[in-house]
C-alpha cells in the first residue's frame, strides 16, 4: 500500500489514479473530502480516505504506525507563492514541518521509500542550461529565487536528503514546472483562460508573463508513480517537457489556435514585474525521466495538451 498526502489536490488525484492503474492499493490522506473534479479524474471507485491534519504530528505518526505503508508520497503543501512571499513562518510551518513529521514516522516504522513533491521554485537564478537536477541550489549571489515558497521547498528537500543519509530511507524528489490540466486549482494563468474559452466565455490574459515550461499533469503523475515504485536511480528528478519555454505571446497564440473564434482580451498586466520568476525558469533536462523511468510526454504539443484539458472540462461540466 502506498500512502499519498495531498491526494485530493490537483496533482495528487492524478497520482492516485495512476497508482491504481498500476495495480497499487492507495491510502489517500487529506484534511478534506474529494472534490467533484477529483472524482472525475479518478473515474471509478475512490480509494480509502484518511482524514488527517498534517499539522498534527501525533496523528501523522499514529497513521503511519497503524498502516505501515511500503512507500509515502508527500504532496500535501500550501502552494501559494504570492501569499508566502512575505510570510516565512507560514511557509516553513506548512511546507517543511509536515514532511519532517512524515519522514520521522517513516524512519520509526520501517517505511522504505519516501517521494517528496518539490518545485523548480527551489532553484536560484539559472547558471546552467538545460537545467540538470543537480543544478546548485545556492550560488555566490543567492539561493532560491522562488521566494519563501521556494525556500521552504528547498529546506524540505535538504531535510529529506538528511534522512536518506542518516537512516537509509530511499528518498526521491520531484521538481515539477508549471503543471496544467483539468482539475487544477490555481486561479490565475492557464485555468481561467482554458475554462472560459471552453465554455464560450471571454478569457482575459495578461500581456506580460514569464516564459514557462507548461507541463501536463499526467506526465508529472507518471514520474511520481515510477519513483514510488523504486524505478531509476537518480534521487532528484525534473518534471517538465524538456522543450523550449513558452513565452506569453506564444501562449496567447496557442490559445487562439486551440479555441478558434474564442474571445481573448489582453490586458497590460505583468505577472512578473521584477523578473523574479523568469530568473529560475529554463529548459529542463529530462534525461532521468525518459531513460530511467520510461516516462515520455503524454501530448506531442502544448496545443494538444490544452485541447485535452478543455475536452475533460467540458465532459465534467456536462455531468
Quaternary structure: single chain
What about the largest sheet? 7 strands, parallel
What is the count of β-strands?
Answer: 11
Gyration radius (Cα, Å) is 19 Å
SS element count, helices: 13
Low-pLDDT residue spans = none
SSE sequence, one letter per element = EHEHEHEHHHEHEEHEEHEHEHHH
Question: What proportion strand?
Answer: 15-25%
Binned, the helix content reads 40-55%
Mean pLDDT: 94
Question: What overall geometry do the principal axes of the alpha carbons give?
Answer: globular
Kindly report the spatial arrangement of strands forming the biggest sheet: 3-2-1-4-5-6-10
Q: Helix- and strand-based class? A: alpha/beta
Span between N and C termini?
A: 31 Å
Record keyword descriptors for this entry.
single chain; seven-stranded parallel sheet; 13 helices; two-stranded parallel ribbon; 11 strands; 319 residues; alpha/beta
List the helices and strands and how they pair.
Blueprint: E1 2-5, H1 10-21, E2 26-30, H2 36-42, E3 48-51, H3 57-67, E4 71-74, H4 81-84, H5 88-95, H6 97-108, E5 113-117, H7 147-167, E6 170-176, E7 179-180, H8 190-198, E8 203-208, E9 215-216, H9 217-228, E10 236-239, H10 248-258, E11 264-270, H11 276-280, H12 287-292, H13 302-318
Parallel strand pairs: 1-2, 1-4, 2-3, 4-5, 5-6, 6-10, 7-9, 8-11
Helix pairs in contact: 1-2, 1-9, 3-6, 5-7, 6-7, 8-13, 10-13
